[in-house]
Amino acid sequence: QVQLVESGGGLVQAGGSLRLSCVASGNIFSISTMGWYRQAPGKQRELVASTSSEGTTNYADSVKGRFTISRDNAKNAVLLQMNSLEPEDTAVYYCNARVLSVQWRTQNYWGQGTQVTVSS
Asked: Which whole number is the average pLDDT over 67-92?
């Protein structure tokens, strides 16, 4: 089994910043893609940003220029630096990792979610 533990959510005023972190542990041989998704009330879960093990990044258009994803492969960790936050960024943010286990099985894992609330 693999566990993803997230931290860093909270309440912030519009224009402020937050940093989310996620650390994966457990039955891990390697991790290919790590990323962050979010789900606002009444909406579908959507990709915010992702990064490959080689450092290739992908961002949702709505966060480009404001959010930065980074990764520490040695720690199996992924960070999301969120600047210039807007009320529309309010959501539960979920960490995701595509993990190859020591048994050579690939599976997607999700964190428990962390709430980000941006007040206007």
From this structure: 97
Q: Which amino acid is at 1?
A: Q
- State the Cα–Cα distance between residues 34 and 39, nearest whole angstrom: 17
63, 38 contact by CB (below 8 A): no
Average pLDDT over residues 48-66: 96
Residue labelled with tokens 């290919």: 32
**What separation in angstroms does the CA of 11 have from each of 16, 51, 86, 99?**
10, 26, 12, 31
Tell me how many degrees the CA angle 40-62-66 measures, rounded to the nearest 5.
105
Nearest to 20 by CA among 29, 9, 10: 9
d(CA 36, CA 47): 6
Cα(42)–Cα(29) distance, integer angstroms: 36
pLDDT tens digits, one per residue of 5-29: 999 999 999 999 999 999 999 999 9
CB 25 within 8 A of CB 2: yes
Q: At 33, list the tokens.
A: 């893609």
